Amino acid sequence: MNAAAGSAPTKVHVPLGERAYDILIGPGLIAGAGREIAARLKGRKAAIVTDENVAAHYLAPLTESLAEAGIAATPVILPPGEKTKSFEPLMRACNEVLAARIERNDAVIALGGGVIGDLAGFVAGIVRRGVRFVQIPTSLLAQVDSSVGGKTGINSRHGKNLIGVFNQPDLVLADSDTLKTLSPREFRAGYAEVAKYGLIDQPDFFAWLEANWQDVFAGGEARIRAIATSCQAKADVVVEDEREMGRRALLNLGHTFGHALEAATAYDSSRLVHGEAVAIGMVLAHDFSARMNLASPDDARRVERHLRAVGLPVSMNEIPGQLPGAGQLMDAIAQDKKVKDGKLTFILTRGIGQSFIANDVPESEVLNFLKEKHPG
Amino acid sequence: MNAAAGSAPTKVHVPLGERAYDILIGPGLIAGAGREIAARLKGRKAAIVTDENVAAHYLAPLTESLAEAGIAATPVILPPGEKTKSFEPLMRACNEVLAARIERNDAVIALGGGVIGDLAGFVAGIVRRGVRFVQIPTSLLAQVDSSVGGKTGINSRHGKNLIGVFNQPDLVLADSDTLKTLSPREFRAGYAEVAKYGLIDQPDFFAWLEANWQDVFAGGEARIRAIATSCQAKADVVVEDEREMGRRALLNLGHTFGHALEAATAYDSSRLVHGEAVAIGMVLAHDFSARMNLASPDDARRVERHLRAVGLPVSMNEIPGQLPGAGQLMDAIAQDKKVKDGKLTFILTRGIGQSFIANDVPESEVLNFLKEKHPG
Asked: How far is B365 from chain A (nearest CA, A)?
């Protein structure tokens, strides 16, 4: 990682052999997107997949930057929200990309948050069995998590992200200026994933966040540093285990509980967004680890304290509306994770920054824990 | 390739590194499928994607064979026909495979012809971002072509096979007994692809087919030999160029014209099936090569004579109903193939078994040729 010097963006390289790519982080990257993309890709056509909200802010400057670099762009504008990660918008986007005559050397550009990135990456992976793919994540969540690592896909009625492909981008442009238009709630939700990297295996980063989170929220150098540290952490894990056969599962810290809560609230973002679900899920994962006598309850309280300080929800009780019972939450977990002989794989922890993959967590223990936490 | 000895199937190995797999060819392979699959895959669950017609013949024996090997199978039965290669059946199949709780080490098994293989391979490639995949092709076309090589996908309103993934199977079981239930028309259509391998680069194989096609149609050793030679030919090309950056394009001999004719008949199999379109397309490719002074017109007549002898259509005039004009056929070709500065890539030939990739065929020459052949 290079330190940000003057106006040069911070660069995180993801060394994945013939699928290697750069993540550039800093201000003004949308205005410079055409130059960066033209330097890396052969094609001179692009389809910009985005949503109505993001398009209003960034479609015009991106299109202009591409045109200046000789790249003709066609917009594919989808409705905002998690429901866009489903078959009908996927089909529509594929057809619009084909109508724009995007060829294998041309690019699909994802301009938006995690939903747009996941959908557009899937589109780029399947149109003509794969065209080039550029991520321009405009939310904190997308910049630190979903735009890096090549997981793409849509949701199914059987659960989140169950249909998709591994498709590494050719370039990620994380323009920190775009975070200025995020709502505080969206920024906080992305911050949950930033904190996650500390909790996985970087206790010093977590401590730094505890001390400096207000600067991260304020913007400037601390924010760039938090984003770059997160991207580097994710890149390191992805390089080690691109297709999630092992270590990559650590990135799911807090996500098993989190996904179940998202399913339980029918992906209704007015009740719960992904990062909030992960925040609650991380506290639950630390609490469950303490209950299994793996970690101290003090660590769970420390996680809870920090996430609450930044304004994130930290318990199921904070989710508006009625939640289904513990049994149904358990069913959602069982569909999300493989259950074998009554055991499931879970990311547990021995303390702050000491998470690990536990392959033999008894389903019954998880169910009992959920019943305690959510007697409803 | 091993010679078929006694009851041992003929084996063609496809050496694609960590994606290497075997193609087994011979009688009785459905009855032995459970053993072969259980020996190669860790999972003990499978979803059998098939169509109503094929299910009536082979679903019960396959399910039984799997059960004997300890593999629990769930059927996913789709309507027969090319229209199944579209988004709605794809979505339905994905959801049914997920409902069957197929995990990454479990298998999606394609039991059917090319349509089922292409769809099921796509499903296997995207459910959970990839589960194991077994091809059990039951048509000649699927056995010699679509089940080998990893191309999967569906059609779009913009053209055939425009949405999909490269997904190599883990095993192909080409049970020659299944060809007994094919209609003569279906068998002939598959035979067009067999003849194609001779025309691409094996003039001796084409001559052998001219002399022995009646034995191939009758069944027995000549048929197995024709299938195995075809699979080996395709495997050789795929190993050299898995993702179709170069040489693999040779497999499209006859297909550029063929795809345009399929589009022009709205994929209506009562008018034209894929192999018939390829037969006409191969004659057109030889005729066009002669017109460009690359090959002798005698070669085109020799191809025409052989394909007509086996009962395949060899000219656009034989397609029932009205065809759109040459201009519309040209548009279909331009969507199928990249056109750059008025030039397109085409598979042409210098004679029987001497095909090559021509990168700079003038669109105008193709259009004039089509106008001559199809003045309508």
From this structure: 22
* Structural domains in chain B plus CATH codes: 10-182 (3.40.50.1970), 191-373 (1.20.1090.10)
Tell me, rounded to whole angstroms, the distance of Cα B30 from its chain centroid: 20
Q: What is the pLDDT of residues A234-266, one digit of tens each?
A: 999 999 988 877 889 999 999 999 989 998 998
Phi, psi of B219 (to 5 degrees): 100, -175
The answer to whether A148 and A238 have CB atoms below 8 angstroms apart is: yes
Q: Which two tokens stand for residue A30?
A: 């949308």
- Provide the CB-side half-sphere exposure for B217 (13 A, CA): 20
Positive or negative: CA dihedral A175, A178, A184, A187: negative
H-only helix segments in B10-80: 33-40, 52-68
Segment (H or E) for A370: helix A363-373
In this prediction the pTM is 0.90
- What gap in Å lies between CA B339 and CA B167, rounded to an integer? 27
Please state the length of chain B: 376
Q: Which residue has the tokens 């940000």?
A: A4
A→B interface, C-beta within 8 Å: 87, 90-91, 94-95, 98-99, 101, 103, 122, 125-130, 151, 153, 156-159, 162-166, 243, 335, 338
Q: Strand A154-156 and strand A159-163: pairing?
A: antiparallel
Tens of pLDDT, residue by residue over A336-367, are 666 777 889 999 999 999 999 999 999 999 99
Of the candidates B249, B240, B309, B247, which has an alpha carbon nearest to the alpha carbon of residue B279?
Answer: B309
CB contacts < 8 A (A, B)? 71
How many Å apart are CA A202 and CA A217, to the nearest integer? 20
**Residues pairing with A246 in the sheet:** none
Distance from CA of A125 to the nearest CA of B (A): 7
Q: What pLDDT does residue A51 have?
A: 97
Of B99, B126, B162, the CB nearest to A164: B126
Distances in Å between the alpha carbon of A198 and those of A208, A287, B298? 9, 17, 73
Strand partners, A154: A163
CB atoms B153 and A129 under 8 Å: yes
Alpha carbon distance B239, A321 (integer Å): 56
Gap between the Cα atoms of A244 and A250, Å rounded: 9
| B91/A263 Cα distance (integer angstroms) | 19
How far apart, in Å, do the first and last CA atoms of chain B sit?
48
ipTM confidence: 0.89
Task: Determine the Cα–Cα distance for residues B112 and A35; give it in Å rounded to an integer.
Answer: 48
Q: Are B129 and A338 a contacting pair at CB < 8 A?
A: no
